[in-house]
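Listing 4. Sequential folding, example run.
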Amino acid sequence: GGPALSPTPPAPLPSRALSQGFSSTFTGERRPKSDGVFEALGATDELSSAIGLAREFCSEKGHAFVEQLHRVQCMLQDAGSNIATPLSSARQAHLKRTSFSEKPVLELEQWIDKYSEELPPLRAFILPSGGRSSAALHVSRAVCRRAERCVVPLVQAGEADPNVAKYLNRLSDYLFVLARYAAMKEGQEEKIYIKSEP
C-alpha cells in the first residue's frame, strides 16, 4: 500500500477554553488568574466601585468634595494600568504610557491636611458610622487597605511603581478623614467603640 497518512491534527480549542485560568497583562504576558497582578487589579477595581457608590451618596447630600472622588477614581484607573504592566516584561513604550508619578500622592496629602484642620481631634476609636455618606466612605477605606496589601508585594518584587502603593496608603487616610468630615457636615453622630464588660 501507499504511505501511511499522518493523523489528522486535533481541532483547535475554542479561544474561550484557552483563556480559562489565565489572563494577559498589558504587556501581553500570560499569567494565571490567581497571579498577584490580577489580585491587585481586582482590588483596585473594587475600590473604585466602592468609591463610586460613596460618591453617589455624597452627591445626594451636595458635598463639594465629590469632584475629588471622581479624580480619585481616574487616578485608580491609572494605578490599574501601572499594575497591569509588570516591569519585568515591560518595554519602554509600555512604561511611558503607564508610569505613575508622585504628584497625585502629594495632592492627596494636601486634601488630608485641609479636612483634618476642620475636624475635632480624635478622642476615641471611631466605628464606621455617621450616616450613609460617611459609612460608604469607611467601606471604601477598608477596601483601600486591602488593595494596598495586594499592591505592596508587587512593589517589593519590582513589578509595580512604588508610587502606586504610596497613593493607596495615603488614599486610605484621605477616605478616613473624609468620612469624618462628611459626618460632621451632615450633622451625623459618629459611633465610638465602647469596650464590653467581661
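-- end of first protein; second protein begins --
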Amino acid sequence: HLPRMRTPTAMIVGLVLCPCGLLLTLTGTLAPKWRQVSLIPDQPIDLIVEQGIWDICREQQSTHDRLCGQSDELGYFEQIPVRVAQGMLPTSLVLTLLGLLVAALGVRCWQKEPWHLLAGIAGLVLLLSGLLSLVPACWYTHELWGLPAPDRSTLAVGYSLVLSYLGSCLEISGGLALGLSFHHCCKER
C-alpha cells in the first residue's frame, strides 16, 4: 500500500486563482461599465453614461432611473479597441474554461499521483487566456480618453475595466502556478 501523495501547493493555488479570475473576467466582459461619461453639456448634471464593450446605459443618479441599450450616436462600438475587446474577451473566457478542464484532469486529486505534464499544459493555456483578456483591457485603458465622447464631458474608468484587469492577473498568476508542474516533469527525466 503506497502512501497517498498530497496535491502540490502550486496546483492548488492555480486551481483557486483561475476560477476567481474567470468570474472577474466574465463580469468585466458582460457588465456595461468600462468607461463612465458624466457632466455632459445640455444634459442633467446627475446623468452618467456607462459604456461597456456590448452596451451603453444611461443612469440618472437622483432617481436611479437606468436605461440600457442606448444608441451609439458617436461610433463608440466601431472603435478598434472596443472591437478587439469584443473578440478577445469571449475567446479568453472559452480558453479559460478549457484550461480549467485540462487542469482538473491533470491535478487529479482523486488519484495517488497528479499528472504533472497535463497540469503544466493547463497552466500554459490559462496563462494564454489571461494574456488574451489583459491585452484588450490595457489597450482600452490606453485609448480611454481618445474614444468618442460628447465634447467637454468628464471621463472616468469604470469598474468592469478594473475587474477585467484583476481577472486577467489572477488567470496569469494561476497559469504560472500550474506551469510550475513542468518542473516535476523535468526532474523525473
